[in-house]
Structure formats: C-alpha cells, structure tokens
Amino acid sequence: MATERTLDVGCGINKLRGSIGIDRNPRSKADVLCDLDRFPYPFRDNSFSRLQAIHVIEHVSDVIHTMEEFHRLVAAGGTIFLATPHYTDFSSFCDPTHRWHLNSFSFRYFGSDNAGYGYYSNVRLREKKVRVRLLALWRYLGFELMVNASTRFRRFWEHYLCYVVRGKVMEFEFEVLK
Ligand SMILES: C[S@@+](CC[C@H](N)C(=O)[O-])C[C@H]1O[C@@H](n2cnc3c(N)ncnc32)[C@H](O)[C@@H]1O
Question: Which of 29, 36, 59 to mutate to test ligand 1, by most ligand atoms within 8 A of the CB atom?
Fold first, then answer.
C-alpha cells in the first residue's frame, strides 16, 4: 500500500487523531475545507490506506457517487469505515439535514452478493463487518447480539422486527477492491 494515511471525511470537531480531516465547515477541525458534494475531492487516487466517515453519508447529495469517490481515494486493500443512523432511530428523521435514511443492507450494491452487482456502480467493496447497535432496552434484552449474530437474522430483523425493536447506529467496514 502506497501510504499509511487516514482521511476523516466530514470530521467536524471530532477529527481522528493523526488523520487528515475534510469538512466544509470552517469552525470544524478540518485540515482541508471542501464540499463533499463537489467531485473530485482534492487528493490523488489511492492517497489513503483508511477512510472514515462518521455520521456523514446521510448528509451527502449522492450516496453512490460519494462511495465511488471514497473508493478512488483509498488504495486497494485499504479500509472504509462508515457510521450512520439506522432509519428507525429517532435521529434519522429528526435531523432536517439528513437526506438519506438507510438500513443495514444499503451498501450491498457495491458487493458481489446481490442482484444489483455492477448495475448501480462499477466500484467494488468487500463488506468486512456490519454492526447494528440497538436502543438500550433492546440491547439489555439481548436483541443486539442476535441481530449481529448472522446476516440471516439481521435480514429477518430488517423485514419483520425493526419498527418495534428499533435500530440506532450502524457501523460498516469495507475492504477496497481494485
Ligand atoms: C453529524 S456531523 C459529524 C461530525 C464528525 N464526523 C463526528 O462524528 O463528530 C456531520 C459533518 O459532516 C459535515 N458535512 C455535511 N455535509 C457536508 C458536505 N456536503 N461537505 C462537507 N462537509 C459536510 C458537516 O459540516 C459536519 O461536520
């Protein structure tokens, strides 16, 4: 891998220590001010070994294009980490700056295990980890463990249970394939 550098996209005031932060807000801790809806971001291809976007993807204008840009910036074998609210969380619809309300399968279109492979995008990401956090009550009752125990049960939860057993934050880790 070319470099061991981390890009913290939409870093806000909580920029990851040692990373390069980008954000459009001049009051943030960003090292580079840029608008995530304007492409390309001001870095060369494969500039980073890791990219994180924590509570950011739900704010951008085009999720697919943004993920393609993340893919461009991270070298093959590098990692993209996303955290974003599950659409059943209070925060998902409460914040009027959220444009997207996502579930734990929303990024499958970049992977090989779905019917849309190659249709939305040519970019390839291998889903290494998906973790769904649930509201505290459900976590204490053991539902969080079950939801994360298998993709099959997570799918069942998304289809049948999530309007009652509500989600909170989802965390995704992808390996960049090139
Ligand atoms: C909810 S905050 C998250 C901040 C930080 N990642 C954290 O976890 O504390 C979303 C951040 O994304 C930035 N952001 C949202 N849309 C953006 C855009 N189009 N261009 C650049 N930054 C954007 C905001 O300025 C804000 O700092």
Answer: 59
